[in-house]
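User: Hi! I'm working on a homework problem where we have to compare a predicted structure to a textbook description. Could you give me the structure for the chain below?
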Amino acid sequence: MKILVTGARGFIGKNLVRRLLNAGYDDILEYVRESTEEELRRYCEEAEFVFHLAGVNRPESTQEFWDGNAGLTGKLVDFLEEAGNDCPLIVTSSTQAESEDEANIYAASKRGAESAAFQHGKKTGSRVLIYRMPNVFGKWSRPNYNSAVATFCHNTARGLPITVNDPEHMMHLVYIDDLMSELVEDMEMLTGAGGREPGDIPGAGEPYASLRCAVYHAELGYIAETISGFPKLRESLGVPELSDAFVSKLYSTYLSFLPEDGFSYRLKMNKDDRGSFTEFIRTPDRGQVSVNITHPGIAKGNHWHDSKNEKFLVVKGEGLIRFRKIGEDDIIEYYVNGDELTAVDIPTGYTHSIINKGDTDMVTLMWASEAFDPEHPDTYYEDV
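Assistant: Happy to help. Predicted structure tokens:
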């Protein structure tokens, strides 16, 4: 199936092209700002499905609003009609099109684009779906252009200030990857592609199709505060509250804005003559992850915990993990190595140790159910 994507190098277009390619749709006609009118005409002759994403939202003149929104859409449907092409058409518009403010030229130009698409559908019988989008955020968005989220992420990742004029302003946002899943699914439901049976799109019976993916509602001040807190997580070895889907997606977006020389950060290695111990992640509710390097012949541990439990995973080298239940004499032993990865649970009430039995350094990943608190260590030393 030949799929025409207008605005293919814009924020939404770039993500959609990559999602289509990942889904196996590799015959994509990309209409971009540099494309010619003749190329658009030819694409309209060949296309079997159209995603019309191109538009203008920050022009240098009001005329560009009309040319880039209503004008381009009118040209697109004219070329489809000239070619006798009644293939399905999905158009992305904006919730701003609902504005009744006569001074809002952007809203008027979007309504003009919507009208041209609807008239095309009535004239040709083409299935036309128009989605009035709220703010869209995610990877590959442009700061100071696509959304406040993009600007906040870009500035925060570079240590630049962010400005919030109205912290209580309510934002309505859709995450780019959620939107991509819905658009591809809608295309497949309209055409029967991807092994689907052709059918109606849920919510598409109304003049404007209803987004089925999650729409997040959050005050601008909360968004700014959340994003500005992400750099501090490196210092505390924390991660955001990933059970909150919105926060998780904000964090993914923030990471996509890191400068290319800012991906890495050093960890504090606690070294001694036995090896080293390095904390990697600390969380208040999911415990702590650490990397333990042990020199040959060295034993570490020989302690036990009342409540804290752990998991050990030797990823390099050869080791012996030994246990003894407090108050008893029997010793339990587990041989582990980096060639046959085996996780070992460290139960409460057992003194335990890990010994490097190989000739090279042994590397062990360790997870503890509680981040270490020096004031309440819950660690009692006793030889196995």
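For your comparison, note the following. The first strand starts at residue 3 and ends at 6. The chain has nine helices and 19 strands. Good luck with the assignment!
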